[in-house]
Amino acid sequence: MDEATARRLTERRVNRRTMLKGIGAGALAVGAGQAAAEVGFTKPAFGVSKTSTIKIGYVSPKTGAFADFSISDGYVLKKVRSASAYAKGITVGGKHYDIEIVTVDTQSDPNRAAQLAQQLIQQDKVDLILTTSTPETTNPVAGAAQQFQAPCLATVVPWESWYAGLGGNPGAPTKNFTYNAMFFFGMKEFAGTFLPMWKRIENETHATKIFAGQFPNDADGNAFRAGFPPFAEADGYKFIDGGAYTDGTTDYSAMIEKFKANGCEFFVNCPIPPDFNAFWKQAEQAAFKPRLATVAKVMLFPSDAKALGSLSNNIATDAWWTPYPKYHSSLTGEVASKLASDFEHETGNEWVDSLGSSYSLFEVAIEAFKGSDDPHDHAQVAHALQHVKYSGISGPLDFAAGPAPGVGIVKPVGVQWKPGKKLYGKKFPWQEFVVDNSLNKDVPINGDLVPTNP
Questions:
Q1: Which of 80, 123, 162, 403 is the most exposed place for a label (fewest CB within 10 A)?
Q2: Topology of domain 24-185+324-409, per CATH?
């Protein structure tokens, strides 16, 4: 399917009101942020720092429901702070600046995320906010940044969820939210990762082309419900929607029976992790066994696999970062595999995808500051941020290329959870193995794609 056809299909399915309905508290401060976007760059109404120190605010969910996304934070911050640019400072506009990083914990609460972002801007007078991990974190932070006119860079959020959270229409992504930028990927890349795996399993098993969707009534769920099915339907798959359920639901029996009654042999979702854990255990009890489960937002971390035990076997998901390609840090020149192996050695934990994305936030920050004449000039830094083009630990990124203003696309790969073996460093009980690299040939395949349920 060509991109123009995909765009038309997406526009037909996207209802902006539906997408925004699920954002809830995560949209705190978005209204004023959207109004600020209408007038373009303006100077902040409050005073900004004029010192010789650049301040960066780092906002992530270190505790609470999304804490697994931040498991690598401590290690990443240690590595970044020891890199020359952060340890010794940088020169911008002929002047030397030291760099200070201020970290805050949202506790996985969208309201707190917005409040902390406002505090970083107005009280700490940061020159740039970096934020990561799910719309519940990134959207309220981005909204506050737009409202109070401070540069903000986000990651680990589908771009459609982020863009809708700022008040944009992902079906026609022309509006520029001037103080915001992000890098990750969206429905086109999810489809480009999941559908090749579906087709291979379909060819091998002669599975019926019917897929189940477990999409909650939140920012990610509504973005997936609007944006993913058109890509699958264009390839001949029939969509069975499980319904826009509330986050925290504990009984999925009606949804599971619906999937079974319709003969669903493929499965896709984007719930919060506890909800998938409950759903998948109930699916096993009810004998709902799709040929291939391709999940998003969950099964991203070893703790998720450990919590499900043997039920994790051959569940597929997307990996936005792995240690396998020969990508190098733009801060130190260190190769991706070294970043991962050192993380495992120092922490005793298995590498995680967020290791690379969190590190890349700090790479992009340096590129943006160096692209300005004055790191304290919010408009200049924000403009530079939206035009960063470089290659680092996550590979090449181009924020001016779209699909929306200020959005850089990372190319994910398909992985499956399987019992661990020693790839390098330690062996862990469950590991991600790359089984499909249709979108990113830089990442070598190191595992066989097999049905989740034979």
A1: 123
A2: Rossmann fold (3.40.50)
